[in-house]
Design a protein that fits this description.
The protein is an alpha+beta fold. The chain contains five helices and ten strands.
Length: 166
């Protein structure tokens, strides 16, 4: 009877520990996103190019770690603000160390089914994203002053000339 109870208890422990990352980690993670200057338009797209968030910085959003069975998620954050260059940066996930814990605890079910199905086998590489936007540079032609001799001026411009002094 004692051996039977020990076997049942041991089997229960193995089943409970069979999905290490699912027990210890999460399958979705919050990320805080900011920009300098703030209040930039922020669009987050997934690996299929589908917009999953649109708003302004600063923002905190929750992203799924998985893009399908055994497939980690990846996202693109695009920042736009008038007078600044558009900037796109990746948001990526990596293998969660707790997923490897399935080997130690003998969790074949967790290794092959539970953690890949829940997405808990992946975790966010960074929980904070802060991007500095670069101002648009105006063309030097816009600010350039050119002086022409009278004989260098195109004929179509001459009708707009005014005599300043004699």
């Amino acid at each position: 009877m004692k051996n039977k109870f020990t076997l049942i208890a041991l089997s229960g422990i193995i089943l409970l520990a069979s999905s290490c990352a699912s027990i210890v980690s999460k399958s979705s993670y919050p990320i805080s996103i900011n920009s300098g200057p703030s209040e930039a338009r922020l669009v987050i797209t997934d690996k299929k190019g589908i917009d999953i968030f649109e708003g302004q910085t600063p923002a905190t959003i929750v992203l799924d770690a998985s893009a399908g069975f055994f497939s980690k998620a990846s996202y693109q954050a695009t920042f736009e603000k008038e007078g600044y260059q558009t900037k796109t940066v990746p948001i990526e996930f990596k293998l969660d160390g707790w997923y490897i814990g399935n080997i130690v605890f003998g969790g074949l079910i967790g290794w092959l089914i539970v953690d890949p199905a829940t997405g808990a086998m992946f975790k966010l590489k960074t929980e904070f994203l802060n991007e500095t936007l670069v101002k648009n540079s105006t063309s030097s032609v816009d600010k350039e002053l050119k002086v022409y001799a009278l004989n260098e001026i195109p004929e179509e411009w001459k009708e707009n000339l005014e005599l300043i002094s004699e």
